[in-house]
Write a structure and sequence with these properties.
Elements: H1 11-18, H2 35-40, E1 69-72, E2 82-92, E3 100-104, H3 118-123, E4 139-142, E5 155-160, E6 166-180, E7 187-192, E8 199-203, E9 216-222, E10 230-236, E11 243-246, E12 250-253, E13 255-257, E14 283-289, E15 297-304, E16 308-309, E17 313-316, E18 326-331, H4 351-363, E19 369-373, H5 384-397, E20 401-405, H6 408-411, H7 431-436, E21 449-453, E22 456-460, H8 472-488, E23 493-497, H9 515-527, E24 532-535, E25 541-548, E26 551-554, E27 557-558, E28 564-567, E29 575-579, E30 605-608, E31 626-630, E32 634-640, E33 645-651, H10 652-655
Parallel strand pairs: 18-19, 19-20, 22-23, 23-24, 24-29, 30-33
Antiparallel strand pairs: 1-2, 2-6, 3-4, 3-7, 5-6, 7-8, 9-10, 10-14, 11-12, 11-15, 13-14, 15-16, 15-17, 18-32, 21-22, 25-26, 25-29, 25-31, 27-28, 28-30, 32-33
Bound molecules: fe (ii) ion.
Length: about 675
C-alpha cells in the first residue's frame, strides 16, 4: 500500500514527497566492457546497452588488511538452483561494526558508493536503511551478524615468523546467504564504511550458477472457464522454445518472451527498473496444456533436452464454470522476505509464513485455485526480486491455478497511463507483471478479465487503470456480467475482485479509499447484484455488512455455531472484505470500543466466520459498516456451492500455532 487517491495528483506533490535530494540522483555512465568480460557476464535475454551501464571504478578503503580473504562455501563449484551459501571473511586485523558483505549480480555490477541511490528506494516506498551502491545489491549483511566477529572469537594468523610464532593475529566471520538461481553470476564483496559511505575491501570473485538456463518457477493459471486447458509459465536463461510434457505423452511448445527497455521512466523521475535496479530477467516461457478435464489431476514437467527438465509435478484443474462448487484461497499484498539475516529492498515480513500456510492448504487437496489480488512481489523496479518471489510461490502455484490482479506496486508511474501517478511500481509499469503472470485478459496493459470456476463468477478489475463509467474496462466487464447473469447461468455467485478497497477503517497518513473510484464503480456492484467483493492494498482483514454508499442494507445473523450469516435470497448489497494481510507489514485499526452484540437480522446464503468474534459497532465515516477486523497476517479461504458461500480467514495467530487449529479457523 502506498499512494495518493484521485487521478489528478500534481507531479509536484510527488516530487515534494520524494524530498529535496531527488534532483541530485547520480546516473551512472557507460563504459565498454572488455570482450572477455562480456563473455563472462553473459546476457540471458535480449541485447541492449543499458544492462551494462553500471560500471565504474571501484572505491577503496584506506589501509586495508593485507590478509583479507572472502571465501564462499561452494569451494569453487558452481551454485545449484537453491543454496544457503556460507561466506567467510577472514584476515581482518581490526573488526569494525561498519564492515559488511553485499551479494551482487552480475559480478560486474557497480559497487561504487552512490549516496543518492537512497532516492531510488524511497521512490518505491521503502524507507529502510539499505546499501547505497551505484547498482542495487541483491542483499547485504553486516559482519556483526556473526556474534563472534566484534570479539574476534574466530581467530587466524596472517603472518608467522621463522619460528612459526604468529605476528599478525586476525579475525574472521561467517555469514549465511540464501540464493536462488537467477541465472547471472554472483559475487560477494566485503565493504567497510557502512551502507552510507561504502568502500571496497575485498571481493570473492565471480561464481556462476551450475545451469543458468535451467527451467524454473513453473506456475499455473486458468485460460478460460471451461477448465479444459491450463497455462504454465516458467523462467529460463534459454531463449529457444521449450516444452511442457503432460498427461502421459502430450506436449505443448512454449511461447518465449522477455522484457528489456520496454518499461517506463521519465526524465524527472528516473526509474530503478531501467538502471539502478535492473536485472536481466532471462526468458519467460509460457505454454498452454489442452485437452484436459475439469477437476482432474495431471503430472507434468517442463524444459528441453538441451537445457534440462524440471522435476515432475502434479496439478489439478479447477472445476468447470457452472459446476456445483469451488474452494479457493484469496489474499493480497504478499511480496517476499529473505530466508537469511540479510537486508533487502522492501521486505514483506509475513510473506513466508502465509505462503507456507497456503502450501499446506494445497497439500490437503481441497483447494481448487488461488487468487492473489495485487501487490504481487514488491520488486518495484528491483527486478531480481521477481525470481525470489517466484521461488517462494512455486510450491503453491505449480499445483493449482494461481490467478492474479494488478496492484499499484506493479503498475503505477507518472505519465504511464496509470490512474494514480505515484512511482509505486519503480518504473515497471506492469511489464514484468504481465510477463510473469499472463492472465486471460483482452490485450497488453488491459489487465482485467472475467472467469468462472465452479459456482463462482469472478470479475477481476484493475484499480490502477481507468474505471470511470464510460471506460473500456468497465464497459467490457459489464458485458461479461450481463452475459452471465442474463439467462445463461443465473445461480453463479458473483465475486468482484480488485486491489484498492472501497471500504477501510485503517487511518494512516494517506487515505486508502478513493471516493471517485467508489462513486464510479459501487453502483455497478449493486446493479449487477455482486455477492461478495474482495480487495487488498490495506494490510489487514476487514469485513463489512451488506453495504452500499456507506450504509448497511443488510446485517448478518449468527447461526447456531456463531458464524455470521448473510441472507442474499433477498439481495440488498454486496459484502466487502479486505484481504491484504498476505505479507506486507500490517496496518492497524483505530482504537475503538469493541462489542459483539449486533442486532440480528434473519439472513442466510453467505456466511463469514469470525476469528475472535471481534465485531465493531462504531461510527466510521457516518456508517456502521465495519463488522470484523483482524490485523494479523493471513488469507481467506472460500468454499462456494450453488446455494452457500463460506468465507474463513486463517490468520497468523493460527499460522504460528498459538491457538488450537481444531476450532474453526477463521475470519
Ligand atoms: Fe497496494
Amino acid at each position: 500500500m502506498m499512494g495518493f487517491p484521485g487521478s489528478g495528483i500534481p507531479l509536484l506533490l510527488v516530487l515534494a514527497f520524494l524530498g529535496p535530494c531527488f534532483f541530485g540522483v547520480a546516473r551512472t555512465s557507460s563504459t565498454p566492457a572488455p570482450e572477455s568480460e562480456m563473455l563472462l557476464h553473459e546476457s540471458y535475454a535480449g541485447k541492449s546497452e543499458f544492462r551494462t551501464v553500471n560500471r565504474k571504478e571501484l572505491g577503496s578503503c584506506l589501509n586495508p588488511s593485507p590478509y583479507l580473504a572472502v571465501n564462499v562455501s561452494t569451494g569453487g563449484a558452481p551454485i545449484p538452483d537453491e543454496a544457503f551459501l556460507k561466506v567467510t571473511v577472514s584476515g581482518v586485523l581490526k573488526p569494525d561494526k561498519s564492515d559488511w558483505v553485499a551479494m551482487i549480480t552480475p559480478s560486474n555490477s557497480s559497487v561504487s558508493g552512490c549516496p543518492l541511490s537512497g532516492v531510488n528506494y524511497v521512490e518505491t516506498g521503502d524507507l529502510a536503511n539499505l546499501p547505497l551502491l551505484c547498482h542495487y545489491p541483491v542483499k547485504a549483511q553486516y559482519l556483526t551478524s556473526d556474534p563472534g566477529y566484534m570479539g574476534c572469537k574466530n581467530t587466524g594468523c596472517g603472518k608467522r615468523d621463522a619460528s612459526g610464532a604468529c605476528q599478525a593475529r586476525t579475525c574472521a566471520a561467517t555469514l549465511t546467504f540464501h540464493v536462488v538461481n537467477f541465472r547471472t553470476d554472483v559475487e560477494f564483496v566485503l565493504f567497510s564504511g557502512g551502507f552510507g559511505t561504502p568502500c571496497v575491501l575485498k571481493r570473492s570473485g565471480a561464481i556462476r550458477f551450475a545451469n543458468p538456463a535451467k527451467p524454473l518457477y513453473g506456475h499455473l493459471s486458468s485460460t478460460d472457464s471451461k477448465a479444459t486447458s491450463m497455462r504454465l509459465t516458467w523462467v529460463s536463461g534459454d531463449g529457444k522454445p521449450q516444452q511442457v510434457q503432460y498427461d502421459g505423452g502430450k506436449s505443448a511448445a512454449s511461447h518465449v518472451t522477455t522484457f528489456t527497455q520496454d518499461m517506463c521512466s521519465i526524465a524527472v523521475l528516473p526509474s530503478p527498473a531501467m538502471d539502478f535496479g535492473w536485472h536481466d530477467p532471462g526468458y519467460i516461457h509460457s505454454a498452454v496444456m489442452t485437452g484436459l478435464q475439469p477437476s482432474q489431476s495431471y503430472t507434468y514437467r517442463y524444459g528441453s533436452d538441451s537445457v534440462g527438465w524440471s522435476d515432475k509435478t502434479t496439478f489439478r484443474t479447477p472445476p468447470a464454470g457452472g459446476s456445483d462448487e469451488l474452494s479457493f484461497v484469496i489474499f493480497g499484498d504478499m511480496g517476499k522476505a529473505p530466508l537469511d539475516p540479510s537486508v533487502e529492498h522492501y521486505i514483506q515480513p509475513g510473506s513466508i509464513s502465509v505462503a507456507k500456510a497456503v502450501a499446506k492448504e494445497i497439500q490437503t487437496g481441497k483447494v481448487d485455485s488461488i487468487f492473489h489480488i495485487g501487490d504481487i512481489s514488491y520488486a518495484t523496479g528491483f527486478l531480481v526480486e521477481w525470481d525470489f518471489f517466484l521461488h517462494l510461490i512455486t510450491p503453491l502455484a505449480s499445483q493449482v491455478s494461481y490467478m492474479t490482479a494488478i496492484g499499484n506496486h506493479e503498475r503505477d508511474y507518472a505519465e504511464s497511463g496509470s490512474v494514480y501517478v505515484t512511482p509505486d511500481s519503480g518504473g515497471e509499469c506492469g511489464v514484468p507483471y504481465e510477463s510473469y503472470f499472463p492472465m486471460p485478459s483482452v490485450a497488453k496493459d488491459k489487465p482485467w478479465y472475467s472467469i468462472e470456476q465452479g459456482s463462482v463468477h469472478f470479475i477481476v478489475i484493475s484499480t490502477e487503470h481507468e474505471w470511470s463509467e464510460k471506460s473500456e474496462q468497465v464497459f467490457e466487464q459489464q458485458i461479461f456480467i450481463l452475459f452471465h447473469t442474463g439467462d445463461v447461468i443465473t445461480f453463479l455467485k458473483t465475486l468482484f475482485v480488485g486491489h484498492r478497497p472501497m471500504y477501510s477503517s485503517h487511518g494512516g497518513l494517506l487515505p486508502n479509499v478513493d471516493s471517485n473510484f467508489v462513486a464510479s464503480v459501487e453502483p455497478l456492484l449493486l446493479n449487477y447484484q455482486v455477492d461478495l467483493v474482495f480487495f487488498g492494498h490495506v494490510h489487514n482483514y476487514e469485513r463489512t455488512c451488506a453495504v452500499y454508499q456507506s450504509k448497511c442494507n443488510g446485517i448478518p445473523k449468527k447461526d447456531a455455531s456463531g458464524i455470521d450469516t448473510y441472507d442474499n435470497s433477498n439481495y440488498t448489497a454486496p459484502v466487502h472484505a479486505i484481504v491484504g494481510a498476505g505479507g506486507f507489514s500490517l496496518d492497524n485499526f483505530p482504537n475503538k470500543e469493541l462489542r459483539d452484540d449486533l442486532n440480528p437480522v434473519i439472513l442466510n446464503d453467505i456466511r463469514c466466520t469470525s476469528v475472535n468474534n471481534i465485531f465493531l459497532d462504531v461510527q466510521i465515516k457516518g456508517g456502521t459498516w465495519s463488522l470484523s477486523r483482524v490485523s494479523e497476517f493471513g488469507y481467506a479461504r472460500v468454499h462456494a456451492t450453488k446455494t452457500d458461500m463460506l468465507v474463513q480467514v486463517s490468520s497468523s495467530t493460527f499460522l504460528h500455532g498459538q491457538k488450537s487449529t481444531s476450532k474453526t479457523e477463521s475470519d
